[in-house]
Amino acid sequence: MSEPSGMDAFAHLGSELREALSDRGFTTPTEPQREAIPPLADGKNALVLAPTGTGKTETAMLPVFDAVVDARNSPGDQPREGISAIYITPLRALNRDMMDRLEWWGDRLGVEVAVRHGDTTQYERSKQADDPPDVLITTPESLQAILTGSKMRAALEDVAHVVIDEVHELASAKRGVQLTVGMERLRRVAGPFQRVGLSATVGDPEEVGRFLVGTGKRDPDRPGDRAFETVEVAAGTRTDVRVLDPEITDRDTTLAGELAVDETTASHVRTIREIVAENESTLIFVNTRQTAEALGSRFKTLAEKEREAASGDQNGENDTTPTEIELHHGSLSKEVRIDVEDRFKSGDLDGLVCTSSMELGIDVGRVDHVVQYGSPREVARLLQRVGRAGHRRDLVSEGTVVAQGGDDTLEALAIARRAGEELVEPANIHHGSLDTVANQVVGIVMDEGDVHAREAYETVTNAYPFRDLSEPRFQEVVRELDGNRLLWLDEETDTLEKSGGTWQYFYANLSMIPDESTYEVYDMSSRRGIGTLDEQFVVNFAGPGETFVQRGEMWRITEIDEEEERVNVTPIPDPTGEVPSWVGQEIPVPKPVAEEVGRIRGEAAAALAAGSTPDAVAGDLAERYPTDRETVAAALKPVVDHVEAGHPVPTDERVVIEGSARTVAVNAAFGHEVNETLARLLAALVGQRAGSSVGMDVDPYRIEFEVPHGVDPGTFREVLETTDPERMEAYLELAVKKSDALKFTLAQVAAKFGAVKRYKEGRGRFGGDRLLAALEDTPVYDEALREVFHADLAVPETADLLAAVQDDSVGVEIARERTPLGTAGRSAGTEFLVPDNADADVIETVRERIQEDRVILFCLHCADWKHTTKVRRVRDQPECPECGSTRIAALNPWDDETVAAVRATEKDDEQERRTERAHRAASLVQTHGKRAVIALAARGVGPHNAARIINKLREDEEEFYRDVLRQEREYARTQSFWD
C-alpha cells in the first residue's frame, strides 16, 4: 500500500470532517490514520493493528462519521432513519470512554451517538427504539439482545458500518465467537456492511481478519464483501523495554522488617516506587489480582508511613511527598474503579497497580512509563501493556520489567527480545464450539420466529469459526435443543420454531462468559461495596473473624450472608491476611518462550563447560538481551549451581527427570500447555501401571509428581519412550474424563445447551459423575471435552514432543538426585503477602477455625461405628464405643463415599484408593491421637501431608498450627492442578 503523508489521509474525508478536524486540533494524522483512513473512506473492510493510544478509534470512526454525514447530505438519496453504524467494545467501561471520545464529534457534525449496554435504563432503551441514534456504542451481549426486538431490528436495517474494538481480545474468547455469528445474523437484517476491526498486535493478522469478516462460505451468490485489508503499525520497534532484577541494598533490609516481607521482595517494592517517583504517571502491571492486592497493600503501608512522618515533622525538615499508588482490577466495585481512573487521569495519583483490565484502552490520560512486575508470560501482553506509555504522536513507549529471578528473569528476557522482533503469539480462536452454535441457533429463532434449519446452518457457517461445521454435527445440536425444549424442530418441514422455553433461555444466556457466582464485599464502616470475591474463596477459606486483602487494604470478616451473597467486613490495620482466590488467572507461558529459556540455559551450560566464567557468560547474554550483567548473573545462578553439581541441564532439546522419596520431577522447558498435557498423560499412564493415583503440579519448565511407592524416574522415562504419539489423544480423553475440570466444564456447557439448570459453583457437589454418565454420547459432552483440550492442553505439540523423544532429537536423561533447576520452581508473585512467620493472631484464627470444623470419626476395625462431631470435641485418643478399637479414621464431613468404600465387599480402583487413604488416616490417629485429627481436618491436607506435619514433632502448638497453615496455603496455590 502506498504511504500517504501529512494531511493526505485526511484529504479522503469530506469538507465537514476536515473542518471538524481543524477545530479539534488534528493537524497531522498518526501512522494508523495515515495508512487506514484511505481504504476505510473507500468503504473497504479493514483490520487495523496498532498500539493503544495511537488514535485507532478516530482511525475507524472519522471515515464512518464522514459516510454518515455524506449520506445525510446526498441529494435524492433516501435518508436513513435507523442506525447507520455500530461500535462494539468488550467492556462497559470502554463504552463509557468511547462515548466521551465520540460525543464531541457527534455534536460537531450533527450525528447522534448513544450507548447501549446492560446498565442502560428502560427509558433510554425505549427512546432508542422509537428514535434510533445514528451511531450506537454497545457490547457483544447487548447486540444479541437488540437483534431480537421488533423496533430495534427495524432500526438495524440501515446499518452500513460495524466497528469492533479490541478484536484481538474477542478473537480468543467464546463471546467473540458468539459475536461472529451475531454479525451474520445482523447481515440477514441489514445486508452487507463495512466491517472494521481495531486490534493490538497479533501473530496471525490474516486469521484475525477472517474472524472479523467471515467466510461467506454459504452465501448463495458469494458477494465480494468478505475481502479485507490489513493495516499494521509495528509495535516492537516502538517499545523500549529493560529487564531488571534489583540488587538488595541496606535500605531493603530495613524495608523488609517494616513490610513483613523478605529482602528480595523489599528490593522489588523499593525499585518500583523509585521508578514511579522518576515519572509523572506510571502504570504497574501485574499478572494476577492476588499480586495486585499484595503489592498494593505494601505501597499503601509505605505511603501511610510517609504521611505520618510528614505530619509529625514540626520543623519542616521532611519535605518528602508521599508516593500515592492505588489499585485497579476487575473484582473491585465499579465506583472504586472509576474513582481511581479519574484520580490517575487528573494527576492525583502517581501510579496505578493494575491487571489486564488496563490493557484494553480505558482512558486514564497520559502514561509516561509502564512497569511490569514479574514476567508478562506472553509477547502480546508485554507489547499491549508497554504500548500504553509514551504514545503521543508516535513516541517510543518505555517500560521496565521488574523480574523475580531465575526462570522468571530468563523468561522476561526471552519475551523482551521476541517483542522487539514482533514474534507475537497467534490468536487462540475457539473453532467449532458447539455450545455457541446452540446459543446462536436459539438466537436466530428468536430473531425470526421460525426459520428453516438450512438457513440457520448457512448463517452459522458463514462465520469463520464455524466454516467447517458439518451438517450432521449441526443436526445433532438442533436435536439436543429440541430435546431440551429450547425450540421445536418440525421434522417434516425442517423448520425451527419457538417453544415455551426459547424466550427464557435466550435472555438468561445472552453471554457466553461462564456463570460463576461471586459475593459482594461490603464495608460496614463506610456502608459501601468495595469489590467481589469468588464463591470458591468464600466457601473454602472465608469465615467470621478471618482476614484478607482487597483494594490493597486489610479487612476482617464480620458476617457472611449466604442468602444475599454478601461478605460484610470491617477495615483493620493487621499487616497479614489471605489473598482472595480468583480462579483461572494463570497466564500460560507459550511453548516458544519456554523453549528460548531452555536454549539460554543450554548456551550458558555449554559455555561454562568450555571453561567460560559465570561473569563472562552473563556479560555475553547482557549484550544480546535488554538487561544488565547483574540481572543475568542472578538469573543464571541456578544454572551455574546445576552445572557445578554435575547434573545434565534441561534445555529445549533435553528432558531431565529426577526424584527423591515419593516425588518425581520432569524438567521440560516446553511451556504451560505442553507441560500440562504431558503431565496428564504421564499421571494417567504411570498411575495405571502403579495401580494408584498420581498427583501433579505444573509450571512452564517442570512437572512435579507425587507418586506411590515403587515408582521412580525410570518409570517416567520408559513411558515417554514407549507411548505411541498417535494414541495420545485417546489416552488423554480417558485421563481428562476422571478430572474435576471436565465435570465442571460439562456443567457449564450443559447449561448453555439447556440440559441442566444454571450451575452455581460452591453449592455442594454438583453430581459431576452422574452428569457425565447422562451426557457422554451427546454434543454437550463433545463440546466440554473440546473446551478442556482447547483451554488447557496442546495435543499436537505434545505428540510431536513424544515423537522427538523417540527419534532421539530430544534427549531424556535421569539425574541421580534432586537438582538446583528441578527444585527452583518459579515465584508465584504472592508469597510475600502472608509471611511464613505469620503473627499470633493469624495462628489463633486458624486454630479456632479448625477446632470448630466437623469431622467424621469412623472405626475401621468393626466398620459399624461412624460419628460426626466438631474437632474440639474429639478425645485425645479416640476409640470406638462399639468395639473399643483405637483404629479410627478422621474423614472430611462430606466423605461418606469413603465409608461406603471401606464397607463394600467388591471394590473398584476408586474404592480401593479411598480405602487405602482411610487406613492411612486411621494409622495416624492411632499413633498420634487428636493432633492427627487436627491435621487431617485442615483444608487440602490428606494423610500423606498430615504425616509430614506431625513428623516434624513440633513441641510448640503454635509452630504446629503454623505448619498446618503453610500446607493449607500450598494446597490453595496448587489446587487446580490436582485431580
Automatic annotation (TrEMBL):
<dbReference type="InterPro" id="IPR013701">
    <property type="entry name" value="Lhr-like_DEAD/DEAH_assoc"/>
</dbReference>
<feature type="domain" description="Helicase ATP-binding">
    <location>
        <begin position="37"/>
        <end position="207"/>
    </location>
</feature>
<dbReference type="InterPro" id="IPR052511">
    <property type="entry name" value="ATP-dep_Helicase"/>
</dbReference>
<protein>
    <submittedName>
        <fullName>ATP-dependent Lhr-like helicase</fullName>
        <ecNumber>3.6.4.-</ecNumber>
    </submittedName>
</protein>
<dbReference type="Pfam" id="PF08494">
    <property type="entry name" value="DEAD_assoc"/>
</dbReference>
<dbReference type="GO" id="GO:0003677">
    <property type="term" value="F:DNA binding"/>
</dbReference>
<dbReference type="GO" id="GO:0016887">
    <property type="term" value="F:ATP hydrolysis activity"/>
</dbReference>
<dbReference type="GO" id="GO:0005524">
    <property type="term" value="F:ATP binding"/>
</dbReference>
<keyword id="KW-0347">Helicase</keyword>
<feature type="domain" description="Helicase C-terminal">
    <location>
        <begin position="271"/>
        <end position="435"/>
    </location>
</feature>
<dbReference type="Pfam" id="PF00271">
    <property type="entry name" value="Helicase_C"/>
</dbReference>
<feature type="compositionally biased region" description="Polar residues">
    <location>
        <begin position="312"/>
        <end position="323"/>
    </location>
</feature>
<dbReference type="GO" id="GO:0006281">
    <property type="term" value="P:DNA repair"/>
</dbReference>
<dbReference type="GO" id="GO:0004386">
    <property type="term" value="F:helicase activity"/>
</dbReference>
<dbReference type="InterPro" id="IPR027417">
    <property type="entry name" value="P-loop_NTPase"/>
</dbReference>
<dbReference type="InterPro" id="IPR045628">
    <property type="entry name" value="Lhr_WH_dom"/>
</dbReference>
<keyword id="KW-0234">DNA repair</keyword>
<keyword id="KW-0378">Hydrolase</keyword>
<dbReference type="Pfam" id="PF19306">
    <property type="entry name" value="WHD_Lhr"/>
</dbReference>
<dbReference type="InterPro" id="IPR001650">
    <property type="entry name" value="Helicase_C-like"/>
</dbReference>
<dbReference type="InterPro" id="IPR011545">
    <property type="entry name" value="DEAD/DEAH_box_helicase_dom"/>
</dbReference>
<dbReference type="Pfam" id="PF00270">
    <property type="entry name" value="DEAD"/>
</dbReference>
<dbReference type="InterPro" id="IPR002464">
    <property type="entry name" value="DNA/RNA_helicase_DEAH_CS"/>
</dbReference>
<comment type="similarity">
    <text>Belongs to the Lhr helicase family. Lhr-Core subfamily.</text>
</comment>
<keyword id="KW-0547">Nucleotide-binding</keyword>
<keyword id="KW-0067">ATP-binding</keyword>
<feature type="region of interest" description="Disordered">
    <location>
        <begin position="304"/>
        <end position="325"/>
    </location>
</feature>
<keyword id="KW-0413">Isomerase</keyword>
<dbReference type="InterPro" id="IPR014001">
    <property type="entry name" value="Helicase_ATP-bd"/>
</dbReference>
<keyword id="KW-0227">DNA damage</keyword>
<dbReference type="InterPro" id="IPR017170">
    <property type="entry name" value="Lhr-like"/>
</dbReference>
<keyword id="KW-0238">DNA-binding</keyword>
<dbReference type="GO" id="GO:0140097">
    <property type="term" value="F:catalytic activity, acting on DNA"/>
</dbReference>
